[in-house]
UniProtKB/TrEMBL annotation, chain A:
InterPro entries: Anti_sigma_zinc_sf, Znf_put
Protein name: Zf-HC2 domain-containing protein
Organism field: Paragemmobacter kunshanensis
Location of the Putative zinc-finger domain: 9-33
Pfam families: zf-HC2
Automatic annotation (TrEMBL), chain B:
CDD domains named among the record's database cross-references: Sigma70_r4 (cd06171)
Keyword field: Sigma factor, Transcription, Transcription regulation
Biological processes annotated in GO: DNA-templated transcription initiation
Protein name: RNA polymerase sigma factor
Keyword Disulfide bond annotated: no
Family indicated by similarity: Belongs to the sigma-70 factor family. ECF subfamily.
PhyR sigma2 domain span: 11-62
A Pfam family annotated for this UniProt entry: Sigma70_r4_2
Annotated ranges, domain RNA polymerase sigma factor 70 region 4 type: 106-156
Organism field: Paragemmobacter kunshanensis
Length: 250, 168
């Protein structure tokens, strides 16, 4: 009996979702009084909305997980504690542990080289240089130690619109300086450093494993640059290993 | 300004976790997603326009990261909590109290929806966004929001035991 006059379901849904004006809502209410089938459908929609709201409500009444709390904690006035490496790969648990974890997993492959890798300067890298060799063949987490202080770490591999790039960080504790560089693989092979940002470690810095204290502004610039370049999230270790194994071919 | 941004973000976290839970169907994945989204938001705080809705901005970041993650890992469906598996089976679910069974069934049913429908349903039915706000958050037309909602509900209601089937 009501079928020919049944109201459009989209309109009933809009009523339930609060999309209608008071006048239109009133008209729907009047309609429902004479159309039990439509009333039943509206009841179902209300029940489904309520069930959905309750089914996923647990986070509302629970404390925020410590990791998120820590992330959102107010930064110290002079120095932000920055995850080391930048946690672009947070959804990849294997990378999310940061450098400390990566080192702990014995991913740190040491290349002892005579010259400091403070040669994090914009421009193409000599293909035979230790850094270029490391970029080409080592996984993220690999550390290039030197005999004289600075150490460089490959932090991650990021897909970008024009190929893959790797974040490299050089930490010179003696000079209280962190250089963060983006090295990108050239289409014809080889690597080029596209940008370098320097951070000064605070004077009283006590660098804990896995974290480096830094001012933070350069890191923001770095992230902005990555976003402009269309960089995606860091590859997982498996994806990265496969990419290295096939010689960085897409 | 920066402090205010952080404070606003902190206040939003419970709702962001709820949205991410609905999207991923899994508490841990949801929290990982919220964490990644907060990191992205802090890095890009300068891009947020004060005076606009931060919740929509954050929902959008979460949804984008989730799509990106799904695409990257070629997942074909959310990893639903083990407790919710197989609850469409009346026999297995029978031991649960009715209310818990309903909620678990709701989560399991949500997880079966295609990703775009799930995002729209989570924004409208759970987060309470208007169709227009959901459309802006997901960068799709309002009409698409409505059609996705409609299809999501057609699939969802019977699974919840709420609908006797098409009536039109």
């Amino acid at each position: 009996m009501t079928a020919p006059k049944a109201m459009d379901r989209a309109r009933l849904a809009a009523f339930v979702d609060g999309e209608l004006s008071p006048e239109d809502s009133a008209a729907v209410v009047m309609h429902l009084a004479d159309h039990p089938a439509d009333q039943a459908y509206v009841d179902d929609l209300f029940a489904a909305n309520a069930a959905l709201a309750r089914a996923f409500a647990a986070p509302l009444s629970e404390p925020v997980p410590p990791a998120i709390q820590a992330l959102l904690a107010e930064p110290a006035p002079s120095a932000a504690i920055l995850p080391f490496p930048p946690a672009r790969g947070r959804l990849r648990p294997a990378l999310a542990g940061g450098l400390g974890l990566a080192a702990g997993l014995a991913l740190a492959l040491y290349l002892v080289q005579p010259a400091p890798p403070a040669t994090l300067a914009v421009g193409p890298l000599d293909a035979a240089s230790p850094l270029a060799t490391a970029l080409e063949g080592l996984p993220s987490g690999a550390t290039l130690a030197t005999t004289s202080g600075p150490e460089a770490v490959i932090l991650s591999t990021l897909p970008t619109a024009t190929g893959h790039c790797r974040e490299v960080e050089s930490l010179d504790r003696a000079a209280r300086r962190i250089d963060l560089a983006l090295a990108c693989r050239l289409p014809q092979g080889g690597w080029q450093i596209e940008m370098v940002l320097a951070e000064t470690l605070p004077g009283d810095s006590t660098t804990e494993p896995g974290f480096a204290a830094a001012e933070g502004t350069a890191l923001q610039d770095f992230s902005a640059y990555l976003d402009r370049r269309g960089a995606g999230l860091a590859l997982s270790p498996e994806e990265e290993a496969a990419l290295i194994a096939r010689g960085w071919a897409e | 300004m920066a402090d205010l941004f952080r404070q606003d973000l902190v206040a939003l976290v419970p709702r962001l976790r709820r949205f991410a839970y609905g999207l991923t169907g899994n508490r841990q994945d949801g929290d990982d997603l919220v964490q990644a989204a907060c990191e992205k938001a802090l890095r890009n705080a300068a891009q947020f326009q004060p005076g606009t809705r931060m919740d929509s901005w954050m929902y959008r970041i979460i949804q984008t990261l989730w799509i990106d993650d799904r695409r990257r890992h070629m997942r074909h469906g959310p990893a639903i909590d083990p407790a919710d598996v197989d609850l469409s089976d009346e026999g297995k679910a029978a031991s649960l109290p009715e209310d818990r069974m309903m909620l678990a069934r709701t989560r399991a049913a949500m997880a079966t929806l295609p990703e775009p429908q799930r995002a729209v349903l989570a924004l409208v039915a759970i987060e309470g966004l208007s169709y227009r706000e959901a459309a802006e958050t997901l960068d799709i037309p309002v009409g698409t929001v409505m059609s996705r909602l409609s299809r999501a509900r057609e699939a969802l209601l019977p699974k919840l035991g709420l609908s006797q089937g098409p009536r039109q």
